[in-house]
Amino acid sequence: MSTNDTILQGDVFAFLADPTSHGPGVRAVERVDTHISVVFIPDGVDRVVKVKKAVTLPFLDFAPLAAREQACMREVEINRRTAPDLYLGCEPVVRRADGTLALGGDGTVVDWAVLMRRFDRATQFDRLAAAGKLDRNILFDLGDAVARFHDDAEVVNLPQFGGAAAMLSTIEGNGRSFAAFRGAVFDPAAVDAVLERSRAHAERHAALLDARRAEGFVKRCHGDLHLRNICLMKGRPTLFDAIEFNDDFAVIDVLYDLAFLLMDLRHAGLAKGASVVFNHYMELRNDIYGLPLLPLMLSLRAQIRAHVTAAIAVHMPNPDPLNGEARRYLMEAADYLAPPTTRLVAVGGLSGSGKSRAARELAPYLGAPGAVVLRSDVIRKRMAGHKPLEKLDKSAYTEESSDRTYAALCAEAATLLAHGIPVIADAVFSKPAERAAIQAVAEAAGVPFTGLWLESDPVIAEQRILMRRRNASDATPEVLHAQLAYDVGPLDWTRIDSSFAKDRTDRACRKAVLHQEEDS
Question: I need a surface site. Which of 223, 334, 422, 436 has the fewest CB within 10 A?
């Protein structure tokens, strides 16, 4: 940033920090700084003003006024994809003939600003996470929002974006960024180990990375999809502050975009939340063939947060807390590259037994971001061309349809297990042949298998069916009554009475699968 730019932006920042610049009745203006922007939040006004800093960094150059203008315009365009009500537009900051500054109007343009609608910052997802307010419904909505965004995002099939070369370039960039903090913040051996394992992972999956680019999975994504860049607007998760200034960061594989959110949820101590978002997203997009890449992508996101956090700590009066967090990110990055125990768990039981909820609760314990939960209800609807929550009529529930559904479930489980990914298969499994078939998948893959059979008092099961909301199951009390007459044959799966408190069922499932004590 040149001296003139420094002086000029100092004038602009002072002008925007002045309450009188934002209209009558404004008594105070809060200033929030990021590494590339300054946001001014006047009280009592339904609008905030965001200005790009006139800085030159390795990944952007905002020193020229024209570059800041272009970035502001691009920010509004990019973010109106997901937050059209939040991004109001752009305005120039002008110097009028009398020498005073104004936002918009006639005069010499000295800077540019993005105008945004003010929202309740308590609804930012990092704050909701800290307050323990990210419940299942909000997380389902979040999975919906990200999946829908990725469905609609522009495909970019250019050699400079995505693929193995981009992943390897990111790894090399991480190595350069870590260099300044080797020894001082990070154990050099720990850094070297993470980088080497990352390179090996990228090289091992180079063909898959390149194939995904060719098949349209590299898109113009968000690029900075962490909890602080999501808020609730009109009660719905809204993604904002997507990257507009560097296509290398934004034109990426959709799973790499998702990985930032999943990593951030887990870093915030919300492993269950990450698993819920992950599995709901997978139900909507069924991107199972890309999942061998997810450990690397999660690790890279944690690596980036590690060195960025260390860089921020340099400018803090007491850098120790941030340096400690940076080291925690690096440890998490290493953990993501350590493969989980590949296993197959089948959760069966009649409708209303709580098997789908039990599968969802068990998933986070089997890996990161959680075991893939394959639900027969979702697979049946996908095969019929329907979304998970769309109802099917009775004609879709023939014996032939069920046979195809169970065959598809077994095939998807086999694919995932072959790539070292833990799986939970969620279905009724009322027939001995269905139970034998899913166990045979585990045997063929050479992985541990656990079969869980949940059974509940029929009155309780019926109540659960009647109380269901946002559930892929189309089962009714009438369906349950018909199932109660089934002869399920001999059961050698672990039988769990799920009539009692949910946490009791969850502990029993974990004990059966992981040999944890029930009071753990």
Answer: 436
Per DSSP bridges, beta strands 37-42 and 29-33 are antiparallel
Helices (H), 287-395: 294-313, 320-336, 355-362, 376-383
3-class DSSP state of 23: coil
* 435 and 483 fall within a common domain: yes
Q: Is residue 7 in a domain?
A: yes
| Residue that has been written with the tokens 């967090």 in this structure | 325
Same domain, 330 and 357: no
Gap between the Cα atoms of 241 and 222, Å rounded: 8
Range of the domain at 69: 3-118
Residue 23: Cβ-neighbour burial (10 angstroms; 0-12, 13-18, 19+): exposed
The list of the chain residues with pLDDT below 70 reads: 1-7, 516-520
Query: What's the pLDDT score for residue 35?
Result: 80
- Is 382 strand, coil or helix? helix
Beta bridge partners of 306: none
Instruction: Kindly tell me the number of DSSP H helices and DSSP E strands found in the chain.
Output: 19, 17
The whole-model pTM stands at 0.93
Q: What is the DSSP string of 361-375?
A: HHGGGGSSS--EEEE
In the block, residue with structure tokens 């709580």: 354
Burial 52-79 (b: 16+ CB within 10 A, else e): bbbbeeeebebeebebbbbbbeebbebb
